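Hi support team,

I submitted a single chain yesterday and got back a structure, but I'm not sure I'm reading the token output correctly. Could someone confirm the output below corresponds to the sequence I sent? I've pasted both exactly as they appear in my results page.

Thanks,
R.
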Amino acid sequence: MTATGLMSGIDLNANSDDARPYSTGTISYPNGVTDDDDLARKTIYGYIRKDSGWRLVYWNNPDTIKYIHANTNNTGSLAVFPDATSSGNLYLDVDAAFSIRIVDFNTGSYLATKDIRIESSSDTAYPYGQIGYLKNDNSISSGSLDKKSFNLTNRNFAVFLS
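Hi R., thanks for writing in. Yes, this is the structure output for that exact sequence:
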């Protein structure tokens, strides 16, 4: 993911790219386009090289939550914090065969001892690219029914892709 604008003065998608969940008002928005920096913080773009093993793409834990809260730009009514999200969903757009591993960690153990204990994990392989929500049965579908819900308020999750 590349953020432009703040450092370069370039704003390719008219969203002011200021890492704030609201517009600074410095960009004129045509056709009612609004600032989407909050969405950008909830979206991860990247590449995983074939046969490179598992790569961590997301991890919600007490340390990452503290880091997000410490960011002074995370203000305003649209700011979204993982520890205030009791029903997060995972939407994937992967263009080649892949595997996904989701790991649920014991938060209490981590807070007490800094020991990372796995509560549960699941691995699923997909023979071709997929676009859609991760479902409760670990299938992927563009429909929004039966989406897997991640309680980020009370649980810590990590997502790996291979």
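A quick pointer for reading it: The chain has two domains: 1-43, 48-161. Let us know if anything else looks off.

Best,
Support desk
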